Amino acid sequence: MAALGFLFIVLPCLAVVSFTCFAACRAQQHRAFELLAYGCLSVGLVCGLTPTAVLLWASTL
Fold it and tell me: What residues contact 38, with CB distance under 8 A and at least 6 apart?
């Protein structure tokens, strides 16, 4: 049950935080913030899409 809570509660929350970090870093003008923004976007996409991938995988079992 703890694993399900991590997959379906914690990871989407981390995705929201990462997308917020992406937006904040993207608004900055410095090159380092732009690189950090795309790092946050990557983490956000992984965290946001992992629960969907798990559901799709579980439906094929």
Answer: 22
Residue 60 is classified by DSSP as: T
Quote the pTM value.
Answer: 0.83
Q: Which residues of 30-52 are buried (b: 16+ CB within 10 A; e: fewer)?
A: eeeeeebbeebbebbeebbebbe
CB atoms inside a 10 Å sphere around CB 20: 12
What is each CA distance from 33 to 30, 40, 56, in whole angstroms? Answer: 6, 10, 34
Give residue-wise pLDDT tens across range 1-57.
788 888 899 999 999 999 999 999 999 988 899 999 999 999 999 999 999 999 999
At a CB cut-off of 8 Å and minimum separation 6, what does 12 contact? Answer: 47, 48, 51
